[in-house]
Amino acid sequence: MLDTTLVITTGVHCNIEVRLLLLFLLILRNIQQYQVNNFCKVISRRGLASPSNDNHGNDESKATTPKQKLQQKAANAKMMINSIKDKAIPAHENIYTIPNFLTFARLVSAPFIGYLIMKHDYEFALGIFALAGFTDLLDGYIARKYNLKTVVGSIIDPAADKALMTVMTITLAAEGVLPVPLAGLILGRDAGLVLAAFYYRYISLPKPKTLVRYFDFSIPSAEVRPTMISKVNTALQLVLMAASLTSTALGQPSSEIMTALHWTVGGTTIWSGASYIYSKDAVRILNHETK
């Protein structure tokens, strides 16, 4: 390949137009090479280069011509940019997804079920409760299958379960179906988790920390990861609520089974509350890309 520098300096077979064109190409090539090198230095300083940089360096050393070296550097830069995009956390996310709508519907159903319990319409309350449980399974399936998981979904999904649990615990205890000490234990644990959620939301929210931004759930700041015992406890609490409704509406299960279930749920409630205190992976603070 003819070296443009040699042609310009010697002036062989070049008129003024060709010389200017070649000079422009030479300047453009040097600018591109400077930009690539500059970008690579910035990436190197930030520690964002991919683990395979050593291999890229070996490939670059094998390039013989300036054009091949430039192409290799451009390819390496492209891989680094893709790596940065994969690691970056968006400042906003789309919260208007089908799983989030189903979760919100379950959240709205909680006070309606409580109203039915207070009116002693246990059969209807049991039907709405079963429908809410079905939406809980459905939104998780859709989110996993179609990759519609969101940070806000990881928060409002357990929040909807807790809202349903809280309303049913209060109303069933008020009607004498659920023991008051067990209801106090369940509500006390959930109140502690809610206060902790408000605290982590505040400390993890990117600046500026305003009231509008605090309640703007399209701005992810912290991700809640339920512990295994917490998932088991939630499932057992749902079984307890369903059994409490069926025991009043259908007379089943027996009082002995209900007593055993009360003690079991009480134990898992204490255990799950402690797991959030001592687990390091229950809450993850998200790092945001700077704008």
From TrEMBL:
One term of GO molecular function: cardiolipin synthase (CMP-forming)
Compartments, as annotated in UniProt: Membrane
A GO-annotated cellular component: mitochondrion
PROSITE patterns listed in its UniProt record: CDP_ALCOHOL_P_TRANSF (PS00379)
UniProt entry tagged with the keyword Transport: no
Renumbered residue ranges of the record's region Disordered: 49-69
GO terms, biological process: cardiolipin biosynthetic process
Signal peptide: 1-33
Keyword Coiled coil: no
Alphabetized UniProt keyword annotations: Lipid biosynthesis, Lipid metabolism, Membrane, Phospholipid biosynthesis, Phospholipid metabolism, Signal, Transferase, Transmembrane, Transmembrane helix
Pfam families (UniProt xref): CDP-OH_P_transf (PF01066)
InterPro entries noted in UniProt: CDP-alcohol_PTase-I, CDP-OH_P_trans, CDP-OH_PTrfase_TM_dom, CDP_ALCOHOL_P_TRANSF_CS
Principal localisation: membrane
Membrane topology recorded in Swiss-Prot or TrEMBL: Multi-pass membrane protein
Protein family: Belongs to the CDP-alcohol phosphatidyltransferase class-I family.
Protein name: Cardiolipin synthase
Lineage start: Eukaryota, Fungi, Fungi incertae sedis, Mucoromycota, Mucoromycotina
